[in-house]
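Justification of resources, computational component.

The compute hours requested in this renewal are based largely on the per-chain cost of generating structure records like the one below. Each record pairs the submitted sequence with a full structure-token output. That output is archived, and it is also reused by downstream analysis tasks.
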Amino acid sequence: MTGFYRPEDFDVDRRALADDRVEFCANNTGNEPDDQYFGEVICITDGTLTASAANSAVPELQTMVLGSPAINMPDNIAYQAHRGNWIIHEDGETITDLLGPHNDDLWSCLPDGRDEDLMGDGCVRIATLNDLEAEWTGGIFDASGRHFYVSIQHNVSGTGTILDITGWR
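The structure output for this chain reads:
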């Protein structure tokens, strides 16, 4: 038993990896319609690569983003290496009493910085699907961090769609 409902995707923090540290972030999707549990994004650290491989590190878990009616049921996650941002893909219900008809968003979230809490330092909505049946899935950045490839499934076309989102600085 864990405190988490429906763990989903995870990605490795490649900046930490370059600094010989093990860190990754993952989503717990939640269960909005039945329980009003909106999910969360967690990050796990496990010491250095050597200590982790030797099973001598002590893992630590921190919540980066708490789900809410706005950031609802985080499903997939992608790390943008050259910026250090995390792109969160929603898989929430599309019609709720609180927000009315809406669909899944992509959120760009900052990791925790040097401040008083241990949470991420903010998220901004960067894209929204206007098809109420569709959902984002499987996003990944290319090595340059300037192309974000993301799939849209369950859309009105009846076939999956892959977008190349550019313009990242």
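The first helix runs from residue 14 to 18. The mean pLDDT is 87.
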